[in-house]
Amino acid sequence: MYGSIELGGTKIRCAVFSEDGKIEEETRIETDKPYDNVKEIGKFFKTKEIKSLGVGAFGPLDTNKNSQTYGFVKNTPKKYWTNFDIRGELKKAVKVDLDFTSDVAASLIGEYYLGAGKKYRSALYITVGTGIGASYIQDGNILDGFGAPEMGHIKVDRIKGDKVKSVCQYHDDCLEGLASGPSIYNRTLCSGESLDISDQAFSYVATYLAQGLATYSYILRPEVIIMGGGVLNKEGMLDLVKTEFDRIKEFQINNYLDLPDTDYYIVLPDLGNEAGLYGGYLMAKNISEN
Amino acid sequence: MYGSIELGGTKIRCAVFSEDGKIEEETRIETDKPYDNVKEIGKFFKTKEIKSLGVGAFGPLDTNKNSQTYGFVKNTPKKYWTNFDIRGELKKAVKVDLDFTSDVAASLIGEYYLGAGKKYRSALYITVGTGIGASYIQDGNILDGFGAPEMGHIKVDRIKGDKVKSVCQYHDDCLEGLASGPSIYNRTLCSGESLDISDQAFSYVATYLAQGLATYSYILRPEVIIMGGGVLNKEGMLDLVKTEFDRIKEFQINNYLDLPDTDYYIVLPDLGNEAGLYGGYLMAKNISEN
Fold first, then answer.
1. Residue B264 belongs to what H/E stretch?
2. How many CB atoms lie within 10 A of CB B118?
3. Residue A224: its chain B contacts at CB < 8 A?
4. Is A155 helix (H, G, I), strand (E, B) or coil?
5. Does A63 touch chain B (CB under 8 A)?
6. Which residue of A has its CA nearest to B65?
7. Which residue among B138, B170, B257 sits closest to A150, beta carbon to beta carbon?
8. Average of pLDDT values for B176-189?
9. Consecutive 10-residue runs of chain A (290 residues): their mean pLDDT?
10. pLDDT tens-place string over residues B216-230
11. How far apart are alpha carbons A53 and A287 in whole angstroms?
12. N vs C: which end of chain A shows fewer Cβ within 10 Å?
């Protein structure tokens, strides 16, 4: 049996996987004070006889093995968590070997080996929710040279007429600031669920996301882009993004990149909300096998 | 002994390296018709008793091992070379095992193992000359998921007042179109060598390059960025780029990325014009040792 944790900013999911990758048991904990949370996690796994543990956590995380603070949460607006040694404290509480990565990288690992990315050598996973994060993998190697990428913060071109205040506290015109979930509320004062997909707010969001995907395509050239997160759960949202991407592909990229057909290139996750947990399972299994 | 080839759009350099990485002999050939060039290359290496060969070539190249046209030059404005099977024809002519990659990736390999990148886990190499190309490496793995990246073609923000026509035939506002060598001539009708570094053309170029480096930093997060190519040979050019990058770092990135000091982050190549040849040598040696 293997343990997997998806440690999010609002909730923590802990799961026990069988050897062959089935979820045997799962629990959810509200994210609160880190020491209390770790104690609860330790309690859950105590009786489970897991061989090892894989963790996908919110961040920013220090993923540099040579760093003094390897495995620590860095500066985060999330109260109490800045400088918390997630890796060290979980290891003490659960008492097995563990591997950890960012939440988005864990989802990518799940999809790359078991989901929408499994036919490919390389894949990009982008999650569009409260924030925007992305992770890239090639030949099984996650891109994280100097730490996890900050792909959600690239500059985009603000659309004339879109007067919304950026929801990113650092940047006025970054992708996360103009296309993450809260930007929809800021434009309409309505939740995304209550709005019709024809609302202009979704069209703005789709355009910025397509701009971002174009930039990622030039730089990373993934074979497939998997889009997850709350905003993509909106019925019709992926189609809007694909339509905007096709427009950019024709009129701005000018078909310069030898891109696959957009229906194959930009896709939803196969594993839905379980991608991160499966990623944790694969990381745990990988420890035991190596 | 190992063979190394730097196959550029205007000249081809062939070198013979000793086991311990010294250049023993070198020749230069003008790039012309591919079959004639390959014959000359074969003749040069015929008497050299090399164990294997590493090649860095202009492109775009098909670097996908599963492709029917693996090792071919793809669509190129370079006369006669489109669809030429560089890998296959060189193998026939030189009769040793060979490995090949793009010219910029070969330079990156040289710098990563023997030059300005050798202290780092990850590095980005960008060459600014007739065109702009870049290549990224992490833990020894070159980024080339779906083929070589096309990082030079990302969109940049045109500076108000810069009316130059883009020199890229595909894009009006891409980095290569506004910041490669020919853009300097197009703005001034002078060669870069004859101009003072205070000329506004260099300031424009530096600003666009700094914009590009910011985008690469968000997405790739390399530990070091090595800048080569003709435009960087201009005395004072690197300093201009660093000054512009510092400005963007403070006022647009808003110090969000935990970047190293710019003097360590943005550097010139250590191996100068030999980086590509050293890269070819390392690739050749790697074949023989594996």
1. helix B262-265
2. 12
3. none
4. strand
5. no
6. A121
7. B257
8. 97
9. 94 96 96 96 96 92 85 86 95 96 96 97 96 95 87 96 95 96 96 96 98 97 96 97 97 88 98 95 93
10. 999 999 999 999 999
11. 8
12. C
Phi, psi (deg, nearest 5) at residue B262: -60, -30
| B139 shares contact with chain A (CB less than 8 Å) | yes
Q: What is d(CA B100, CA B249) in angstroms, rounded to the nearest whole number?
A: 36
CA distance A254 to chain B (A): 6
* B147 strand-pairing partners: B145
pLDDT tens-digit readout, A142-162: 998 787 899 999 999 999 999
DSSP A2: E
Question: Which residue's structure tokens are 């993450």?
Answer: A180
B121-145 burial, b if ≥16 CB within 10 A, otherwise e? bbbbbbbbbbbbbbbbbbeeebbbb
Nearest to B258 among A122, A147, A216 (CB): A147
Structure tokens at B142: 């070159």
Distance CA(B122)–CA(B139), nearest Å, equals 6
Which helix (H) or strand (E) segment holds residue A53: the answer is strand A52-57
| Kind and range of the H or E run holding A16 | strand A11-17
Here the tokens at position A165 are 């205040």
Instruction: Provide DSSP, A158-214.
Output: PPTT--PPPS-SS-SSBHHHHHSHHHHHHHHSS-GGGS-TTSHHHHHHHHHHHHHHH
Written as six digits, the tokens of B147 are 């083929």
Q: Whole-model pTM?
A: 0.94
- Give the span between the Cα atoms of A14 and A44, in whole angstroms: 8
Q: Give the per-residue pLDDT at B16.
A: 98
> For residue A118, how many C-alpha atoms fall within 13 Å in the half-sphere facing its CB?
11
Cβ atoms of A209 and A128 closer than 8 Å: yes
pLDDT at A147: 77
Candidates B218, B224, B265: best to mutate against A (most CBs of A within 10 A) is B218
Give the best residue of A218, A254, A256 to mutate against chain B (max B CB count within 10 A).
A218
Strand ranges (E), chain B: 2-7, 11-17, 23-30, 52-57, 97-102, 122-128, 132-138, 141-142, 225-228, 266-267
- Any chain A CB within 8 A of the CB of B250? no
B138, B145, B254 member nearest A170 (Cβ) = B254
Dist. CA B246–CA B251, nearest whole Å: 9
Q: Per the CB < 8 Å rule, is A157 touching B155?
A: yes
DSSP-derived pairing of the beta strands B52-57 and B2-7: parallel
CB B210 within 8 A of CB A141: no
ipTM of the complex: 0.93
For B148, nearest residue in chain A (alpha carbons):
A221
